[in-house]
Amino acid sequence: MSASPVRTTLVKLLFGAAGMFLFAVFVMPPLYDLFCEVTGIGGKTAGPYQVTEAGVDTTRTVKVQFIATNNGAMPWDFSPKVHEVVVHPGAPTEVAFYAKNRTSRDMVAQAIPSLTPFNATEYFHKTECFCFNQQPLEAGKETDMPLVFIVDKDLPRSVKTITLSYTLFDVTGRTTDATDSSNYKEPFALLN
Amino acid sequence: MSRRANMLFALVLAPVLALISSGSALAEEAQRWAVNLPKGVTPVSNAIYEIHMIIFWICVVICIGVFGVMFYSMYAHRKSRGAVAANFHENTTAEVVWTVIPALILVVMAIPATSTIIQAYDTSEAEMDIKITGYQWKWQYEYLGEDVAFMSELSTPESEIYNTAPKSQYYLQEVTEPLVIPAKTKVRFLLTAKDVIHSWWIPDFGVKKDAIPGYVTESWTFVEEPGVYRGECAELCGKGHAFMPIVVNVLEKEEYNAWLGEKKAEVAAIRELAKKTFTKEELMAKGKEAYDRSCASCHMGNGEGIPGVFPGLKEGSAAVGPVANHLDVVVNGVAGTAMQAFGGQLSEVDLAAIITYERNAWGNDTGDVVQPIDILKFKQGQ
Amino acid sequence: MAHGPAKGIGRWLFTTNHKDIGTLYLWFSFAMFLLGGFFAMVIRAELFEPGMQIIKPEFFNQMTTMHGLVMVFGAIMPAFVGLANWMIPMMIGAPDMALPRMNNLSFWILPFAFALLASTLFMEGGAPNFGWTFYAPLSTTYAPDTVNYFIFGVHIMGASSIMGSINIIATVLNMRAPGMTLMKMPMFVWTWLITAFLLIAVMPVLAGAVTMMLMDINFGTSFFSAAGGGDPVLFQHVFWFFGHPEVYIIILPAFGVISHIVPTFSRKPLFGYSSMVYATASIAFLSFIVWAHHMFLVGMPIGGELYFMYATMLIAVPTAAKIFNWISTMFRGSMTFETPMLFAIAFIILFTIGGFTGLMMAIAPSDIQYHDSYFIVAHFHYVMVAGAVFSGTAAVYYWLPKWCGKMYDETMGKVQFWVSFVGFNIAFFPQHFLGLAGMPRRYADYALQFSDWNMISSVGAFIYGAAQLLFMFNVIRTIRSGTPVSEPKTWEGAEGLEWTLATPVPYHTFATPPEVK
To answer: Which residues in C lie closer than 8 A to residue A180 (C-beta atoms)?
Structure first.
């Protein structure tokens, strides 16, 4: 019995196991995000959009609904100012969400978007959104948070209603870096 | 003896009973001994039932064939019967045949499966939308665009669960306020959750979908028959997982519209009621009822909580501290804990009653009385 | 080389002998089987009648979680590692495992992992209560503080499994007797070789999943929290990327055991050996590309839904081939029905039923109804208990006489088989009905229409539980006072290198490698 082939196998397999661990922690999450972005799973809408082509498709309309949810113990009042708008694809539209910090302490919130149906996700562009940044709000203060979006002209014709949901999370006391969703995707920006 | 005979009888006849569940006594018996999927009352649930039965029978036929050969060999090729072992151990033709045939059967199964899942996914062209939010441990229903929203939670009393009272017919399948939808209408459900993942399941609709915090999923239904349909939470969501049932009341369209009108009037009435001043006795009585419904699942009926998980409400807790802090905790919740912000969930009357109750029950005799108007003032700017 | 075992407790603490370590694994797994079984008895006792009688709902959740974790990681996996330790060197003509000191370590960290996990039951906040699948955020933001012990425990179990697998692969690849080519290896060795590769591929993924949980809970990252750009559904993807291969890790060695027992008692060589090897390999490969069929309801796009449905259905093909091969092995054999064979036949029948319910659940539209109901509970107990546990039991009866040179009592063995078989089916068959009728899994209490089947199921579970005490009694009695046997071949139809050794097997075997023709 020679020890060396056993040792070679041992080393190879240890590397394999370590590799799988690194794969799980460092590759799977960004890969999943990339996958979501491509397929629209979870309805995670992308970051700020640069308008590339102008023009409005007046031949059809799309209904865009807005819903708002507070996560966990988030005590703010949070609701869309309008429940739905009907828009032409290609036309920029501005709406706003109302928020009020009912508590007696200053707080910071992060809104997380989610959109249905999923196959509309890549055709829904936001040029301005309160969800791009954390939203600080002093105790007792209220605010209107703006959202400007464009529904892409290439939106599949089968989609007639888009529902955009925001869930408000309490991120008071958490650092910006760890919670900024646009930072999180940065390493993969090159792949897009 | 006769009970046992009955049981045996029911066991044998369970499938038959399930099929001919027409008479009411018979139907109840059949439901008790149900062995199969309900056919349900929507196009999707019917399609699922069909496909379930097709695949079930294909499996049964294959089982009979395969086990038939096995049992035959076990009988005919026993050593005790003098069987001498053959020595074959390979046959490529046989291997190819039993690879190809199952593959073909799978293709046959995949065809109806594909069309049904596409049907179940088609949420387009819905006539109305309902947002369903899962909470630990209740559901909130929000009629989009109608300004109607309410919580729906278990109404079975703790006494039935802990066996101090006899269990009623719809034990653990009854709620404070059911979801109401119109019949023969395509209703779209938008699901999300407040805290952990829940799953909204009505077997009769063929609808089950996860409700995930931060994200929205969708499903739909089209119910032919008015009636009351019951379901439950299907994703483990903590200690109250088994105690957050779903009840849907399907009404004819006109009745539904009438209900919606009443509901809107009720919302206005509750706002009005918030301005009234109640006596301490009234608040204590209302408070106990509301507390048992909304608070007791964590803080327990006796206010002792569960050590290490949910705090008690006696000495040293917010319930005996300053009133303003108590209000803050109940209305705004406590960040990073399971304590939800009840300000948006309960009416001012209920909140005032609960706080008054907590401050005076279980020997907490602070004597404080909190009126709905205090809650309103607190919410509107301290 | 020719010295015997050391004396006293030191023999077991410091042993590097594959047979001793195999024995340790087997006893440990049996102890865990009884512990997990005790949790199951608590669950079934509570579910005997509607209403909460014995325990509170929060404790019920701890019981279901601990039952799952202890059975999967403490009972079934170590049992097959124990069998591998005992049998692989003997089957391939090796003197011992390739890495004997690592072998010792990989066993001895296990008791610590489970002591840690079990100790959480007595801590404030209680044991893990989020199910053995521990979905975020229930297992992160909303978990009891003891979740950190759970994570540490899972890391240790993972390390143990990885070391065990490395050892098995190193042994199989490097230490086969001259002439034993890969395609001459016994099926049990083949299935374990493939299982070991699966383990090395996915146990680190599980470790990764719990590490990400640990970071989310304690260090403010947001892998699984939407608040920081993460996603709770990502957890499920990572978990099931581990979890689906995991269920094959559990069942493949069981296939290996059955592929030895069926030919022995049919007195006929295994039918389609090479197709069995290829079927095992293709099942292992497919296990990596079907994980999201556990997640049909999270709101995947329709394309994903269809892909995972088709890929999952495909698994039926190699699995069916295995069943056909076993039945062809029996066909025109000369069969006898000793206890191991009875368990093997029950395995084939019940595993097939479990396979069919698996196929039904692969159908995405039907899964809308089956998902997270008692139907899935019935399904995985048919494959885990009637599959893995029955084959483990069969293996013990099959090889015990060889290991200790004493014959078990055939009547007692048969009694245990029939009590197990009947109890198992009374316990789990009605759970199909409960699930179809609409009872979700992990329910501490249920509506009245589910009362009767639940009561029957509980009775069956108690019967099945009692049968395991009978098993323990049989094994101990055999070791202490079984009829001595000394024939190298315990069973007339047995083939393979392990049956050329003396009975009972000497402490050191194959010091000089045998020649394989």
So the answer is: 229
* Segments forming the whole domain that contains residue A1: 1-39
Q: B214 vs C226: CB contact, 8 Å cut-off?
A: yes
Is C161 annotated in the active site?
yes
Query: What's chain B look like in SS3?
Result: CHHHHHHHHHHHHHHHHHHCCCCHHHHHHHHHCCCCCCCCCCHHHHHHHHHHHHHHHHHHHHHHHHHHHHHHHHHHCEHHHCCCCCCCCCCHHHHHHHHHHHHHHHHHHHHHHHHHHHHHHCCCCCCEEEEEEEECCEEEEEECCCCEEEEECECCCHHHHCCCCCCCCCCCCCECCCEEEECCCEEEEEEEECCCCEEEEEHHHCEEEEECECCCEEEEEECCCCEEEEEEECCCCCCCHHHCCEEEEEECHHHHHHHHHHHHHHHHHHHHHCCCCCCHHHHHHHHHHHHHHHCHHHHCCCCCCECCCECCCCCCCHHHCCHHHHHHHHHHCCCCCCCCCHHHCCCHHHHHHHHHHHHHCCCCCCCCCCCHHHHHHHHCCC
ipTM of the shown complex: 0.91
Active site residue C160: yes
Per-residue pLDDT of chain B (382 residues; tens, 9 = 90+): 344 545 554 555 454 444 444 445 566 666 778 888 999 999 999 999 999 999 999 999 999 999 999 999 999 999 999 888 888 888 899 999 999 999 999 999 999 999 999 999 988 888 999 999 999 889 999 999 888 889 899 999 889 999 999 999 999 999 999 999 999 999 999 999 999 999 999 999 999 999 999 899 999 999 999 999 999 999 999 999 999 999 999 999 999 999 999 998 888 887 777 778 888 888 888 888 888 888 888 888 888 888 777 888 887 788 888 888 888 888 888 876 778 888 778 888 888 888 888 888 888 888 888 888 888 778 776 5
Asked if C200 reaches chain A (Cβ–Cβ under 8 Å), the answer is: yes
**Number of structural domains, chain A?**
2
Determine the distance in angstroms separating the CA of C193 from the nearest CA of chain A, rounded to an integer: 13
Q: Any catalytic annotation for residue C27? A: no
Distance, in angstroms, between C243 CA and closest chain A CA?
A: 13
- CATH of B128-270 among 3.30.1380.20, 2.60.40.420, 2.30.33.40, 1.10.3430.10: 2.60.40.420
Catalytic residue among C46, C216, C246, C498: C246
Q: Is C193 on the interface with A (CB under 8 A)?
A: no
Domains and CATH numbers, chain C: 15-500 (1.20.210.10)
Name the residue among C61, C336, C365 with its Cβ closest to that of B116.
C365
Query: Cβ B144–A158 below 8 Å, yes or no?
Result: no
Topology, domain B43-121: Helix Hairpins (1.10.287)
Is the CB of C271 less than 8 angstroms away from the CB of B88? yes
